What we know:
By secondary structure, the chain is mainly alpha-helical. It has seven helices and two strands; from the N terminus they run H-H-H-E-E-H-H-H-H. A two-stranded antiparallel ribbon has the order 1-2. Helix 1 (5-20) packs across helix 2. The mean pLDDT is 95.
Amino acid sequence: MQIPAKADYGVRALLILASSGEPRTAEALAGEQGLPPRFLGAIMNDLRRSGLVASQRGAEGGYRLARPANQISIAEVLRALAGPLAEVRGLRPEDTTYDGAAANLQEVWVAVRAALRGVLDNVTLADVVAGKLPKHVTDMTSDPQAWLPR
Length: 150
């Protein structure tokens, strides 16, 4: 899975909002994480349209989370900014079909999506901010093999 910059930047901005509890402008959010302000502004508009953030005008204005941080999963943010978690040639895994030696490949793609969901649907912004990830996630990251590039 490749996580595009748009999704990475959006998650990082939402983590700031989750940790601060105060409205922040896109420029302030960009400054805290060293992100391109104009690009982050467009990302924040996408997040507003998807219902993950709300915007407030005025001197005390900026963006804030539309729901509590413990109710926003990382998967929800990724889907809002990058689309489905797993696609094969633009198709959902269950919509793929293969013949011959590849006949069972669809099951692999469905399992990959299930594995992504198992992590991303179960980790919230609040979990990341608190540094308290679900046990099944910390179990995965405690395996030294998980940290090796391949």
